[in-house]
From TrEMBL:
The lineage of its organism: Eukaryota, Fungi, Dikarya, Ascomycota, Pezizomycotina. It comes from Pseudomassariella vexata. Keywords: Signal. This is Concanavalin A-like lectin/glucanase domain-containing protein. Residues 1-21 form the signal peptide.
Amino acid sequence: MLLPTFTLLLTLLSLTSQASAATWYFLRYYTPSGSKFTSFSGDLVIPTLPQAGTYYLWPGLQPTDGSGVYQNVLDGRSGTWWIGSGWCCSNPSLPWGGGFNTYAGETVTFNNALTSDGSGWASTLTRKATGAVVSDTFALASKSFNQVLFAIELTGVSWDFGPLEFKNVKITSTGTDSSWCDDSPENYGSASVFSISGVKASVSGSVVTCTMTSVILEKPA
């Protein structure tokens, strides 16, 4: 299948322009100044796909320079959900990673982390129903990720698939300030009704760990 493309994503997420063909719903966390995110993982519960269409549902990270988004994208264009990891869209230009089909009611685990030697970011997707695993590494070591996003991006379709649920979320950042870890992220445009449960923060040395039992984008506001 064609790889996901997000031609207007960077403009929107840097919030330099509100013009976009897509309709957006997303929650966003920021690290404090001087800190950066070093990992982002969780379980994505696959919703029903009502029809073939440009549904892009994803967790992702955006860097301080606003040059792109590193994301695990659930793509509904073929009429069957497909999920894969990648960097959108240039600076640098990188090939999209591998992926697999997945179906309503399944759970896919995503794990994105700065590699131990700091040379890049590694992504692993696991389809729990079958044990299928896809792993990729992306040359993004130069990027300082200061934003975590839970996003719904729709073009020519509506939010007709029900709630989008993330479970067992774990996010780590550098530093000692854990104040960003709460149940009140930025709700872009106040566009979503959402709920977040089980938020816990801890600090060990210069690493902040934030866990959440669930993050649910429930419906349009």
